DNA sequence: TCTCCTTGGGCACACCGACACGCATCCTGG
DNA sequence: CCAGGATGCGTGTCGGTGTGCCCAAGGAGA
């Protein structure tokens, strides 16, 4: 299935206003409400739209500190990876975890209230992860770009 | 303003089903639709809920490769930072960019179709960024955790 | 060239549900 | 005992959503 510009316009709008009604979207895209409803349903059924979710302001919850954590394991054996991953998914402050190529085995993104809070997270969550050989933390001083979807998606021109 | 468990339950549910109706949410949380409507509006007005957005399946768009890019600048002067940041926000394949403490100046998260596509991005987007001294790329082999909101948010117990 | 068929769009309508309001109740704290 | 805040119920109105039908455009085949 290929997407045309109107599909991309629908997706671009829904990534901003997920609760927009059919008529509302139809006006912005330049379609009738029924044609738009068909397209939107197709985008959902074909899996382009995974879900509709509320975006929370994490700063409002006091989570203003982002930390990148590099973790190297004692060994890269399959058993060690499985043991580590089974535990890291339980860490409540971890929002992302990548298994990486290169020297570092894993990279985590951790959200904390402040530096003191990260010390607590380091002690209660990270240091309890199994098979860890080395942990290296870097603090994010500022977030320059934060997009859910790369703009390249909406720039494609098919059809 | 403090949030109680019901507020957190509302937020937890809305981060999954942003289009849920008042009655639907009310049943899950254990409130009447009118009490829920008041709370939801308060959460929006107080800024806890920033927006409602559709989550796209980026793999459906062919973006299956995540790359972490470490960038060091020639100098950390304010002018160099500003020049770099003004350009990096224009890169269509960059989804996140942090100004970091420590040795690396910036860390980017880039989404690409595959390794060949990242070569193109490296050539057309990254290598054109100003004041760059060193670029180091690491490929994510797998995404172990990917959460929009840390689970710690919903575990708080106030009131 | 003509015709058939498919695909996508628009119009109209009817139904169902959501949303907002008013009011009574309850609980808690002063 | 009272006052304020929060809840729940009921109701009415409004809007969205889904359906059926028709139309236009384009492609395939005879």
UniProtKB/TrEMBL annotation, chains A, B:
The species this protein was found in: Bradyrhizobium campsiandrae
Cited PANTHER family: LEUCINE-RESPONSIVE REGULATORY PROTEIN, TRANSCRIPTIONAL REGULATORY PROTEIN
Protein known as: Lrp/AsnC family transcriptional regulator
SMART domains given in the database record: HTH_ASNC (SM00344)
Domain HTH asnC-type: 3-64
Short name of one Pfam family: AsnC_trans_reg
Gene3D superfamilies to which the protein is assigned, alphabetical: 3.30.70.920, Winged helix-like DNA-binding domain superfamily/Winged helix DNA-binding domain
Keywords associated with the record: DNA-binding, Transcription, Transcription regulation
Entry-linked InterPro entries: AsnC-type_HTH_dom, Dimeric_a/b-barrel, Tscrpt_reg_AsnC-like, Tscrpt_reg_AsnC/Lrp_C, WH-like_DNA-bd_sf, WH_DNA-bd_sf
